[in-house]
Design a protein that fits this description.
Helix content is about 70%, strand content about 0%. The chain is mainly α. It starts with a helix and ends in a 7-residue tail after the last helix.
Length: about 220
């Protein structure tokens, strides 16, 4: 199938917006239901995984369903996309994330934009984001290398679902989503003071994943 650049960019914008709307919207819903923190986490993990499966399945054939600047960065490093595509994808991913935050906020509050006070800091949180981002990018690259790209729509949601529970950072693993979540005061949001550390950890995890994927390339894949 042949899609125009505008169609691909639109897919990236809508997909990233959808992810953020689900993450923040679920947290707003949990708050309105006065759900316990553990129930809030479970609700968010399941909703996010479900949304990822749907969005990747819908938009994968159009744009590749990156929805994530570090996934886009990894493909740029591997020379699978051009620099201009990487930049345009990253910009619309961030724009989509902000739109998704505004949508979630408007569904549950009377203001489109709010600012988070949820601090997420510390060495353990940084390490959690490195691990979450490494695993996400690594599984995408490895499955593509092995000719199993058809499994990505399932593997990505499952990894993020697991990451909600085994990483202290709850597996943001996405700079655009991180920025979008800073435009809300929902429980799953993040303060602007924490955003730089999260993005640094996500980029580091992605770079490590690119290196690991190269090391595990078979001779026929090189």
């Amino acid at each position: 199938m042949n899609f125009t650049s505008w169609q691909r960019l639109s897919a990236e914008l809508l997909g990233t917006a959808g992810i953020v709307a689900v993450v923040l919207g679920t947290s707003h819903m949990a708050a309105s239901l006065q759900a316990a923190p553990a129930i809030d986490l479970i609700m968010n993990a399941l909703a996010t995984a479900g949304a990822l499966f749907v969005l990747i399945s819908i938009f994968g054939s159009i744009s590749g369903a990156h929805f994530n600047p570090v996934a886009t960065l990894a493909l740029l490093i591997r020379k699978e996309i051009t620099a201009s595509v990487a930049v345009s994808y990253s910009l619309v991913q961030i724009a989509g994330a902000v739109l998704g935050a505004a949508l979630a906020n408007l569904m549950f509050t009377d203001q489109a934009i709010a600012f988070s006070s949820v601090e997420r800091a510390g060495t353990a949180v940084f390490l959690g984001e490195v691990v979450a981002s490494f695993g996400l990018v690594f599984l995408i690259l490895i499955l593509a290398q092995q000719g199993k790209a058809n499994l990505i729509p399932v593997a990505v949601p499952l990894w993020i679902l697991a990451g909600y529970f085994f990483t202290v950072s709850t597996s943001f693993a996405n700079p655009a989503v991180t920025i979008g979540r800073a435009f809300s005061d929902a429980g799953s949001s993040i303060s602007w003071s924490s955003v730089p550390m999260f993005i640094a950890a996500q980029v580091l995890g992605a770079l490590l994943a690119v290196g690991a994927a190269v090391l595990l390339k078979s001779k026929t894949e090189r």
